[in-house]
Amino acid sequence: MEQTAIVIGATGLVGRAVTDQLAHAAHIGRIVTLTRRSAPHASAKVHNQVVDFDHLEASAASFSGDLLFSCLGTTRKQAGSIEAQRVVDLDYQYKAAQLAAGQGVRHYLLVSSSGANAASRNPYLRMKGELEQKVQALPFERISIFQPSLLQGPREAVRWAEKLGGWLLPVLCAIPGLRRYRPIAGRQVAAKMVQVSRTPGTGPAWFRLDEIFADAT
User: Fold this and answer.
1) 138, 101 in Cβ contact below 8 A?
2) In this model, does residue 34 exceed pLDDT 70?
3) Domain locations in the chain?
4) φ, ψ for residue 75 (rounded to 5)?
5) Which class in CATH covers the domain with range 3-152+184-212?
6) Is 124 one of the catalytic residues?
7) Which helix (H) or strand (E) holds 4?
8) How confident is the prediction for the chain on average, in pLDDT?
9) Active-site residue, 108 included
10) Active-site residue identified among 45, 92, 108, 128
11) Active-site residue (options: 124, 134, 181, 192)
12) What's the confidence (pLDDT) of residue 153?
């Protein structure tokens, strides 16, 4: 039976790849992308809806489906402050998860981060860990959390720190013990998410870097 997938963050690196790959997935019949601005797609499967993330409750009906791919995220530089980044990376995503759970979505798939920890001193890793904790309390049948390291691939805006890291980390990660921190392409994370979405399962599960590399292509 074909399923309906909802994607938030569909204009970002992983979200775009997820949407593209879902459009060719046999188990998906309809894809709803929820975006701040119009984001048309070539596939007839994809139905884009412009929503106000500050008032997501007004779009609650748009979260009706089988799967929610939560790929939303920003940087402190883009947001303007760590507080503003938390609104996008934590508050918006948690509200979307709440609405999806309320609409009966069974499987929640989240792009988190390697090192996510609600007790971390790093504000970025702390907000990612807090989100992981909060969504586990929601009544999803299944939760899949993906924890990649530095993401590589084409973006709308150039992130120079990530670009520099993308050059240096592959070299550094050749050193024994550092391989687990090597960069990964956004399309590889997307491939793993789509792969997991077509397999059975229940409860929460984490997919860390080596597991994503092992099976995603």
Assistant:
1) yes
2) yes
3) 3-152+184-212
4) -115, 165
5) alpha beta
6) yes
7) strand 3-8
8) 87
9) no
10) 128
11) 124
12) 66
